[in-house]
Amino acid sequence: MVSKRRLGASMIFLGLTFVGVFHAFAAIAFHTGLLSVAVGTVVGSLLCLVAVNVPAYLD
User: Fold this and answer.
1) CB atoms closer than 10 angstroms to residue 20
2) Is 12 exposed, middle or buried (0-12, 13-18, 19+ CB in 10 A)?
3) Which of 2, 10, 15, 28 pairs with 51 at a CA distance of 20 to 30 A?
4) How many domains does the chain have?
5) What are the C-alpha distances in Å from 20 to residues 16, 32, 50, 55, 56?
6) Rg of the chain taking only CA atoms, in angstroms
7) Per-residue b/e over 22-54, b at no fewer than 16 CB within 10 Å?
8) In which domain, by residue range, is 39 found?
C-alpha cells in the first residue's frame, strides 16, 4: 500500500525530473552552458525518487 506522503513525494520528484530534462534540452538547443545544472537536477531528483520508493519494496 502506497501512503499519500510517499505518493506526493514521488510526484514532486518526478515533476522535478521532467523539469530537468526540459532544461537539458533547452541548454543543448540554445547553447547556454547550463547543461551540467540540468543533468545534476535530473540525477539528484532520480536518486531522491529511488530513495523515497525503495522502502516500499522492502516492506
Assistant:
1) 20
2) middle
3) 28
4) 1
5) 6, 14, 16, 25, 25
6) 14
7) ebbeebeeeeeebeeebeebbeebeebbeebee
8) 4-58
Residue 55 grid cell: 522502502
Amino acid in position 41 = T
Sign for the CA dihedral angle at 38, 18, 13, 48 comes to negative
pLDDT tens digits for 1-51? 678 999 999 999 999 999 999 999 999 999 999 999 999 999 999 999 999
The three cell numbers locating residue 11:
510526484
Run of H or E including 33: none
pTM confidence score = 0.88
